[in-house]
Design the sequence.
């Protein structure tokens, strides 16, 4: 199913190739059946592309969540950030409540496409997203500092959707990439 819902360019190219092939048959034969087949392929292609646009997979939902969280951090929006944290993640919630008021974030960006691994068979479903981020922050006493860490974010699918359980910083040196990192 991910061929249809997570690969829109591939889907569009396959649809286009089938339309061209059926169109070539119609041009060569000029038969009504080939014209009907061409019309059917065009309609089916449009329906497949519509389904791709309407269906949000777990990976797409996690990507959207991570980018929204980066935006919340960049805007120093602690309340919005906490909405994305699992209610069961007490340590992470305390950390955010304790650290965010002391920092002023200048920048928080995800700089690589997150590599998301979903475990649908877990109860509740779980996922891990690995990516590189760029975070710049300062305090009232210190100038702005920038870190470019590799991050593993661990998520759970709860009743309200995907939420962060915890995270791990894998490496902060931009030249030192952990094994298997994107």
Sequence:
């Amino acid at each position: 199913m991910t061929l249809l819902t997570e690969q829109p360019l591939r889907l569009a190219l396959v649809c286009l190739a089938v339309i061209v092939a059926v169109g070539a048959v119609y041009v060569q034969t000029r038969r009504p059946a080939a014209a009907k087949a061409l019309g059917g392929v065009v309609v089916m292609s449009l329906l497949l592309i519509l389904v791709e646009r309407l269906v949000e997979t777990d990976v797409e939902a996690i990507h959207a969540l991570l980018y929204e969280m980066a935006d919340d951090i960049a805007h120093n929006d602690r309340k919005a950030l906490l909405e994305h944290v699992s209610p069961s993640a007490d340590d992470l919630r305390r950390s955010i409540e304790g650290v965010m008021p002391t920092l002023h974030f200048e920048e928080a960006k995800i700089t690589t496409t997150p590599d998301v691994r979903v475990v649908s068979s877990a109860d509740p479903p779980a996922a891990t997203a690995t990516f590189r981020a760029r975070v710049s922050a300062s305090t009232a006493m210190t100038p702005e500092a920038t870190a470019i860490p590799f991050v593993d974010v661990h998520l759970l699918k709860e009743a309200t959707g995907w939420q962060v359980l915890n995270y791990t910083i894998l490496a902060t040196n931009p030249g030192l990439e952990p094994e298997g990192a994107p």
About this structure: The CA atoms of residues 19 and 41 lie 6 Å apart.
